[in-house]
Amino acid sequence: MACNEAKAIAKHVKVPIKETTPNADGSNSFNPGVVVVAVTNTSLLEEQWEDDLKMIDVTNDLCPKICTANYELANMRSLLEGTLVLKILGRKVSYIVLKKRLEQLWSSGRPFTLVDLPNDYYLARFSFVEDRVWELSSGTWVIQGHYLTVSEWSLEFDPWVSRIEKTAVWVRVPSLPLIY
């Protein structure tokens, strides 16, 4: 496929392509975001581009839709199974602060992955099931004086519309008789 054809396809899909610049030793250097295409069989590549273009709906320039097959969705879902959805109630906390504080609170010493989502939600993924179960069920977590809600990820979770409807809290009532 010629460079002009790649540019035409990229323009149709609205993907910027920048050309590489040759170095003195003959190798190519490029900036981040550059698409480099090595072509051996142009007809096969053109068929793939045509198939890929069918999967992209560009009717809305601001938000193109990419269609996926059911098996691709199942693969994406399997990556999220077993993750926990986190949100701090009443306060915004930066990713780094939250990660360090969680490492202190969840002091198993084993690593976990924290992913920042929109609307102050986070996803936590653990290498060991025991860690996930412990973090999910070991009580109320408080970070900088605010409750951290912890729930299991589900297919219905959408950070743009999901709301925290319930959480476990610790209530201290001073001078309450022991009968209660």
Describe the structure.
The protein is of the alpha+beta class and 180 residues long. The chain folds into two domains: 3-67, no CATH class; 82-180, Alpha-Beta Plaits, CATH 3.30.70. The protein is built from five helices and nine strands, in the order αββαββαβαββαββ. The protein has helices spanning 3-13, 42-54, 70-80, 95-105, 129-137; strands at 21-22, 28-29, 56-57, 65-66, 84-88, 112-116, 121-126, 141-143, 146-152. The longest helix is centred in the N-terminal third of the chain and has 13 residues, at 42-54. Residues 1-21 and 27-39 have low confidence and may be disordered. This is DUF4283 domain-containing protein. InterPro entries: At4g02000-like, DUF4283.
- Mean pLDDT equals 74
The CATH superfamily label of the largest domain reads RRM (RNA recognition motif) domain
- The residue fraction in helices comes out at 25-40%
What order do the helices and strands follow? HEEHEEHEHEEHEE
Tally of strands? 9
Tell me the span between the first and last alpha carbons.
78 Å
Protein name: DUF4283 domain-containing protein
InterPro entries: At4g02000-like, DUF4283
Domain DUF4283: 79-160
